[in-house]
């Protein structure tokens, strides 16, 4: 029996009464797939499964310059259900997209360590999200495409910090892809374009991509009640160069004590060269790691880690905000 319009209507269930509304509902669902029930769960699961089972390549220190600091890019699009009453992507939906991007990033990073632990009969050490901060810079319009560039910013004895940028799709392209060499070949051949121009034509141009938002998140690795230092997880995953003997381990935490004064905060910021005026610039320039000719040995990796610690010092102070809970000290405006 031939396939015709009537059979298509029957297959979609739109041939009877109310068929038009069912067809519109199907179209609406297709245009908002990522927002459907279980959509978030399937996207997170895809991030885990892609890197644990379907991707044969793994990132190591030999994958390229500063492999531990290289970004992983996830593409998405703002749907109608993502938008708020201002007809742009709602602030709350950024965090759902960040979950997907970090699922890809963290799984890609510690894949080798998880596989090594399984072969040695050790229990896995799963990461746990400990906090997220997001700064919104520009709006994302309905059905506008964007990319989420996520990379390791730094780590201390307890926390692994990731930084994510929401970037306008097609406005910037990385210099290469350590885990996807076929994409690197396309860039070399000039096939990969940046807003209609080949990468070769843009090689001498100073690209200024539109950064919609920037987020910093921190993860802790737990084995039962024991906290596993991120440096150990990264070392088990072959992401760090050999550490010279006699060097000190990273500090326990960069979170200052509650009684730290504002003068101490100013002094700490001065040490790292940070101020409210240049923090934005530091965040924006961290979009792509530097790739100078100097080798990425332990000293250079440590210098980049220390630079990142200076940036997340501001986020670490948010842990003190719980002391601001007033509780029964003051009356409330109401309860609704």
Give a brief description.
The chain is of the alpha+beta class and 336 residues long. It contains nine helices and eight strands. Strand 5 and strand 6 form a beta hairpin.
Structure commentary:
This protein has 336 residues and is α+β, with helices and mostly antiparallel strands. It is 35% helix and 17% strand. It has nine helices and eight strands. The chain has helices at residues 5-12, 19-31, 39-54, 91-119, 181-188, 230-236, 262-272, 279-285, 298-316, and strands spanning 72-77, 127-136, 145-155, 160-168, 193-194, 197-198, 211-223, 226-228. The strands form two sheets. Strands 1, 2, 3, 4, 7 and 8 form a six-stranded antiparallel β-sheet that branches. α3 runs parallel beside α4 (91-119) and α4 (91-119) crosses α6. The radius of gyration is 23 Å and the shape is globular.
């Amino acid at each position: 029996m031939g396939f015709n319009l009537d059979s298509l209507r029957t297959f979609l269930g739109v041939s009877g009464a109310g068929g038009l509304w069912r067809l519109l509902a199907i179209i609406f669902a297709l245009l908002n797939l990522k927002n459907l029930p279980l959509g978030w769960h399937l996207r997170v699961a895809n991030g885990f499964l892609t890197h644990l089972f379907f991707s044969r390549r793994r990132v190591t220190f030999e994958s390229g310059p500063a492999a531990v600091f290289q970004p992983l890019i996830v593409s998405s699009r703002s749907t109608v259900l993502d938008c708020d009453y201002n007809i742009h992507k709602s602030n709350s939906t950024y965090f759902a997209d960040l979950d997907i991007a970090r699922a890809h990033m963290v799984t890609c990073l510690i894949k080798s360590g998880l596989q090594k632990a399984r072969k040695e009969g050790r229990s896995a050490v799963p990461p746990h999200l400990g906090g997220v901060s997001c700064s919104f810079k520009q709006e994302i319009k309905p059905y506008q495409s964007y990319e989420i560039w996520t990379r390791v910013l730094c780590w201390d004895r307890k926390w692994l910090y990731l930084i994510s940028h929401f970037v306008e799709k097609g406005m910037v392209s990385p210099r290469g892809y350590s885990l996807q060499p076929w994409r690197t070949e396309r860039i070399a051949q000039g096939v990969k374009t940046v807003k209609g121009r080949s990468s070769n034509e843009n090689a001498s141009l100073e690209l200024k991509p539109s950064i919609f938002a920037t987020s910093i998140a921190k993860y802790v690795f737990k084995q039962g009640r024991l906290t596993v230092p991120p440096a150990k997880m990264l070392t088990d995953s072959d992401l760090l160069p050999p550490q010279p003997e006699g060097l000190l381990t990273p500090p326990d935490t960069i979170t200052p004590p509650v009684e730290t004064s504002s003068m101490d905060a100013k002094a700490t910021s001065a040490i790292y060269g940070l101020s409210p005026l240049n923090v934005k610039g530091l965040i924006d320039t961290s979009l792509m790691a530097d790739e100078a000719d100097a080798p990425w040995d332990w000293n250079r990796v440590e210098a980049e880690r220390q630079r990142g610690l200076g940036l997340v010092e501001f986020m670490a102070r948010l842990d003190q905000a719980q002391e601001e809970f007033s509780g029964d000290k003051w009356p409330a405006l109401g309860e609704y």
